[in-house]
Amino acid sequence: xxxxGMFLFTAFYLPLFAQSLRVLVNQHMAEVSYLGLxxxxxxxxxxxxxxxxxxxxxxxFAMGTxxxxxxxxxxxxxxxxxxxxxxxxxxxxxxxxxxKKIEILAxxxxxxxxxxxSTLREVEQALISMLHKYCQYEREFxxxxxxxxx
Length: 150
Hints:
single chain, about 15% strand
């Protein structure tokens, strides 16, 4: 392919060579067209091989299974909530649903109604950072909060 390209490129700069090329093409048009068809198919084969050899290869190995431990998440969630409400009773349970979606059931102390929204945002942020830091869990989770009166 490189040779054909150089051959046709130099024909423009060498007039005697270009004239002999014109005579060759005019007298042997059928053979030149077969040569063009053969070089076209050869180029397609080379391009296909180049693409095939340059493709990425992925290997899939079946390894041991790793499951999300709901008791571990519940422990860390309870510790995170206990840091938000020190000295108060906090209960926490975790349910792992289908597709590894986590639902956290938390029972936290009752707070004033005007502070509930900000308290829930603090609880959410604490649980998000805990799940990210200790469990590398970055997907959505369900938070089910109930307020307890002591």
